[in-house]
Automatic annotation (TrEMBL):
This is Transmembrane amino acid transporter protein-domain-containing protein. Belongs to the amino acid/polyamine transporter 2 family. Keywords: Amino-acid transport, Membrane, Transmembrane, Transmembrane helix, Transport. It is found in: Membrane. PANTHER family: AMINO ACID TRANSPORTER (PTHR22950), TRANSMEMBRANE AMINO ACID TRANSPORTER FAMILY PROTEIN (PTHR22950:SF692).
């Protein structure tokens, strides 16, 4: 989490660095913002958001198109436009706190709907920051078992999940600040871009062998589950408040959001369209499992595996820091040794929990759909609109904007309710089909 210092605009002289950065102009009608004297540029914010958004969610987009047909491409475009709008309107909501900027979804929920709203917001955020590491453990275990097939390293997904849990858990227990792992974003972006290029090129090479694959124009029944996967890929909203707070010139926030998601849209559509065009309804999730086997595919798998493993601590540490702050687990309160033991015990328990879930539900695609449906749909589509209405007013919006807002809410609720239902049904079906653990 980003540490921020609350400051009132009038407290600074006209020649201060904060005033030079146009602190809060056009954003904060109450006259309160954070100290942006050490803030970064808009390009830096754009880069960070692209790094955080270009994640493993894109690997399921061709499968999402296969579930909804070519019509699901329109869903991807619509979801990204709505996500962009949600990021833009989240900013004015941040500056409607009582004498302070609201620095997290939980604070926005508290301000908008009281304690119940705050805890509901925290609940959905927790689904993302704990559910995604579960997804990452499942993916990394499957990848390594696949790479080591036919060798002594073919341990089974059960054992590989435990191995990766230990690899992730050791740094997770000892890391105390997000600054220690900030470099991961750059590696993640490069890894995902290289993976996209490899997958698109290999699918193009394989196209002559896939001419008989079937394609659907629209599959209405598949739209809810497709929406779930799309919502997962569209959501880096959990970090919007932190990234906006790190900017020296907050007036540039809308341009940063639009630039980021426009960039990501290019990669998303390139991967989704090429994957479905070549493999049709047979495309797999993750999509690189559809392309021909060989060194290039192995490189893509290795890159994604390294990316998700080094990314896990980012989400887990951000969750731990927030909870430890809520529980007041500090050196000042407990002393250095006792504070470390309490923190280590808490984080070990979290690690055991996500490992157990990953072992019990080892289905990458279905887990992605479930997390996207239940949590990301709320965070990406529903909550930003509700915060915007509650904190900036409802009657002061024109009819066109309100109609657009209602469309986003419908989109979000359909993805959340029907997507969650479909995801759970598919999970039950998998277990009923007699799934056995690879031990």
């Amino acid at each position: 989490m980003t540490d921020v210092k609350i400051a009132k605009i009038e407290d600074f002289s006209s020649n201060s660095s904060i005033c030079d950065s146009e602190l809060g102009k056009g954003v904060n009608d109450n006259g309160y913002d954070i100290d942006r004297s050490n803030g970064g540029s808009s390009w830096f914010a754009y880069y960070n958001l692209v790094c955080l958004t270009l994640g493993t969610g894109m690997l399921g987009l061709p499968s999402a198109v296969s579930q909804g047909g070519w019509g699901a491409v329109a869903l991807i475009i619509g979801a990204l436009v709505m996500s962009t709008y949600g990021g833009v309107i989240l900013q004015p909501a941040m500056y409607r706190g009582k004498n302070r900027r609201l620095n997290s979804y939980k604070e926005l929920g508290n301000e908008a709907f009281g304690k119940i709203g705050g805890w509901l917001s925290f609940f959905f955020i927790t689904w993302v920051v704990l559910g995604t590491p579960v997804l990452y453990l499942v993916l990394s275990a499957q990848n390594l078992d696949q790479l080591c097939k036919g060798t002594a390293g073919e341990l089974g997904t059960f054992k590989w999940t435990i191995v990766w849990a230990v690899v992730v858990g050791i740094p997770y227990i000892f890391i105390k600040t997000m600054n220690n792992i900030a470099w991961v974003s750059a590696f993640g972006m490069v890894a995902m871009i290289v993976t996209i290029i490899i997958t698109v090129v290999l699918s193009g090479v394989d196209y002559p062998n896939q001419l008989n694959n079937h394609h659907d124009n629209v599959v209405w029944d598949g739209f809810p589950i497709a929406l779930s996967t799309i919502a997962f890929s569209a959501g880096s909203n959990t970090v919007y408040t932190s990234v906006e707070g790190s900017m020296k010139t907050p007036k540039q926030w809308p341009k940063v959001i639009i630039g980021c998601l426009s960039t990501c849209s290019i990669f998303y559509l390139m991967l989704a369209i090429s994957g479905y065009y070549v493999y049709g309804i047979n495309v797999l999730n993750p999509v690189y499992n559809s392309v021909p086997d060989g060194p290039a595919r192995s490189v893509a798998i290795v890159l994604v595996t390294i990316n998700v493993i080094v990314s896990c601590p980012i989400l887990l540490v951000s969750f731990a820091l927030e909870v430890e702050d809520m529980l007041n687990i500090t050196v000042e309160r407990f002393g250095k040794k006792k504070e470390f033991l309490i923190r280590a015990a808490f984080r070990t328990a979290v690690m055991v929990f996500i490992t157990a879930v990953g072992i019990l539900i080892p289905f990458f695609g279905l887990l992605m759909s479930l997390i996207g449906a239940f949590a990301n749909s709320s965070i990406v589509f529903i909550l930003p609109v509700l915060f915007y209405w509650r904190l900036t007013g409802f009657r002061n919006k024109n009819i066109i904007e309100l109609a657009w807002n209602f469309l986003i809410l419908i989109f979000g609720f359909v993805a959340m309710i029907f997507g969650t239902w479909a995801s759970i049904e598919d999970l039950i079906k998998e277990f009923k089909n007699g799934y056995t653990y690879s031990i």
